[in-house]
Amino acid sequence: MGKSKSRSFFGYPLSIFFIVVNEFCERFSYYGMKAILILYFTNFISWDDNLSTAIYHTFVALCYLTPILGALIADSWLGKFKTIVSLSIVYTIGQAVISVSSINDLTDHNHDGTPDSLSVHVVLSMIGLALIALGTGGIKPCVSAFGGDQFEEGQEKQRNRFFSIFYLAINAGSLLSTIITPMLRVQQCGIHSKQACYPLAFGVPAALMAVALIVFVLGSGMYKKFKPQGNIMGKVAKCIGFAIKNRFRHRSKAFPKREHWLDWAKEKYDERLISQIKMVTRVMFLYIPLPMFWALFDQQGSRWTLQATTMSGKIGALEIQPDQMQTVNAILIVIMVPIFDAVLYPLIAKCGFNFTSLKKMTIGMFLASMAFVVAAIVQMEIDKTLPVFPKGNEVQIKVLNIGNSTMNISLPGEMVTLDPMYQTNAFMTFDVNKLTSINISSPGSPVTAVTDDFKQGQRHTILVWAPNHYQVVKDGLNQKPEKGENGIRFVNTFNELITVTMSGKVYANISSYNVSKYQFFPSGIKGFTISSTEIPPQCQRNFNTFYLEFGSAYTYIVKRKNDSCPEVKEFEDISANTVNMALQIPQYFLLTCGEVVFSVTGLEFSYSQAPSNMKSVLQAGWLLTVAVGNIIVLIVAGAGQFSKQWAEYILFAALLLVVCVIFAAMARFYTYINPAEIEAQFDEDEKKKRLEKSNPYFMSGANSQTQM
Asked: Is the pTM for the entire model greater than 0.85?
């Protein structure tokens, strides 16, 4: 073991402060990148929600599968310190690559604001993500175990507190980065065209990863470093394989049973290794039900964020973007870990209740399950407020009178009279096959039949401005605008082309009596400028929208006043979200309490129950449960295409509840051990054996004493 002088500070080894700061920077880097990843996929690479969610969870799963590799490298080849340093370098390169992949001007040769070859960006970002998954996953099991290694025997209390501080550092890093990176993303940057600033939002995490690496290397002189102990995983696999083979060979009744199936390896392997493997397999067995917890937990970044996009982010004077809701989890962790550690656990102990690690984990699973029940209730509330969109062979129609005289519109079973600059109250729903005749007329003029092809499953707006003049427009909005943004389109009633510029986005050359496509904007008041050759120079051209909230859509009509100047009138197409994002706080609170009692405890339990040479292996096993959890999300969400989102939440809650009961039953039969004591016993026995070999009289003398 490479030992350095271990200096201490408040009874803690000084070296762990470097490890905690390193973890803080590394987590800032990882969560900062992860917070904007799903929006990078949907907005920049233009993938749809389902593909983005699938790639996102695949990436997260990969980040938690690679710890196996990291543990192997650390325990059998490089040792924890060198593994952390070398994989951090890989990690930093990965972060830099994904930052480069998001530079729009990289392939935008014609400077039109969109990349000319998206495939270059996709390939680069996938290489970046692969390197990040290898880096972050590879160092994960090593950093926590390396921190645990810094403590002496008899410092269990400090070590447990270290795991809590370590978890606090993880969440402080994630909290700051999930607040900061979305802010960086909404900045505009670019050489030739201004875009959402993904290079900056990915670049800051890359810089922090480099800082994490430097801080870690600075503490090098103070660490206790253990030499790697040969390929421990290989030995474990061989020993287990031999035990199973040997048991199978001696399966007849003639051979006496052995206490444990691993005892069948005694012919070839020493007792110490067998006993260490027994410790590991007993814990690994307990891990089998755990992925279900992570399957629910990791939906905060995907499903819950998408739920937030259908809600209103105005909480009092604050205004929250949907992707910032995840910060609630990190804020609550930073508050709850100290409360649980300093108040709740000591209180429970005072009441004489033995709140063991596994009991805590069972409670954690139950709380996460309840969080999803709450999410389902919130979803039902949201569903009540969502507009009804056409399904199957339905079509929806609304009529908008943009002319100067009153119009009568007859639809199947409906007669509507519209004054100038008015629209029908809402979209009317018809069966496309029964939509036989729509007629337009005005007093004293002949009837005009609307002969247009209505696409099933779509919303349409009929613009009318004279008895024989109309235009049918396919809206193209079949759901609430994504990410809680607001859709705006313009109708031109001038005779010449007009161009509208709003918050940096351009509606170019809208022809006379025609409508633009929707463009999308975040909440707030937006300024826009109207330009046309038909507008006299003295006219006002700059206008403001009223305050845009979340998830609405509007049509703005640009009409000519008597003095030939433009004026603007707005009509609502989709109403803004009304259910407040604050309603998500209870589900985040339950899930966070579940995480505190489940995750911090799990980390500490994995370390305390592992033999000294397999600490990283068990940490990797613990992280593997997270990977499997993300794979479960992919399977469940892919297999059960639910028409109602709340039903999916209830299914997940029910699955976790069942798993929770199974885990509680398994935990009842687990006996806690102290690996250090067991190993000390083996050391003692080996010492005696060595003494016997070197001094044959040592034992015989002792025997004759007892016989006398």
From this structure: no
